[in-house]
Each structure stands twice: as structure tokens, then as C-alpha cells.
Amino acid sequence: MPPDHTHKNRALFLDARKMEPPEPFIRAVEILAALNPGDYLHFLHTHTPFMLFPELEALGMIEETVQNHSGLIHVFVWRENDSAAQQAARHDIAAILKGDNHK
Fold this sequence. Notes:
Number of helices: 3
Strand content: 15-25%
Order of helices and strands: EHEHEEH
Structural class: alpha+beta
Low-confidence stretches: 1-5
């Protein structure tokens, strides 16, 4: 089956700053299960979600976590070997590290 060239990379955004456990974990896993090629999760939280990391490994996901200038934690997650999602996520990571609050 040929690749679907009509699908664009999408950031699926989850703002978990006001959620109570275990809702952020449950919502993140639900989003990750539905990722299409080129999609990635941008998870925003007030602290690093360490409980999520073993699940990401089990699901074959890659994550990069950064903290912005105001102390918020941004976790970017994409499927292993999804270079389009990785490239798009790293573009957003670079913007956050430069102080571009586009999200």
C-alpha cells in the first residue's frame, strides 16, 4: 500500500497542568495509541511524568523532555523510526528552547 501523502505531521497537544493523577497518564496513553505516521504527542505538565516513561518504552515510543524558561515541562513523544514525526517534534523543541511560546 503506498504512503498517504495527504496526511500532514500533527502535534497532538495534551495540557495536563490542571489534571489529577492518573488522568494525564491515561490520556497520554490513549493519544499515543492513536498516533498516525508523522504525528507526535506534545505533553505539557508542571513536573516530569516519570511514571509514563516505562510505558513509552513498552509501546516503542521515543521521548524528549525539555523545560522552558518558566519551568513548565514539555514532553514530546513519537513512534520509534518515525523520522517525519521526529523532525517535526524537534522543530517544536528548538522553538521552545529559543523561548518561542507558540503552543
